[in-house]
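Practice problem: predict the structure.
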Amino acid sequence: MSDTTAVPTARAVRRWFVPDAYIPPRSTDPEVSHESICVLNAGPEPAVFTVTAYFADREPAQSGPITIAGRRAVHLRTDVPDALGGLQLERGVPYGLEIASTSALQLQYSRLDTAQPAYSLMTALLDGAPHHTLQG
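Answer:
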């Protein structure tokens, strides 16, 4: 008689973090202040990821699953909920981000602040370390 009980297996989930996220509330025409999460999937298969926003005064909010095709790049503006899996973020409210996927993606995070005539651009490459979780 064989045991058909499922044995949990470890699956690596990669997580990338942006502790200092903020969509500037003001802009100077014609450019709009915004942030972007740039995702590169250099692998041949589609990849799925989620974005979770953490706030100082409320529970986290999470996107729906976002899919990126294999060998493609996407640039997701954080002020466009449809591009961000339905996640809605307010301008002028500080938050932190967590991006999670089981795929080895490359991520870059950028903020364009056009509140003053001399624009400011901040960008960072994110290092996603694998974290093991049990899945049955």
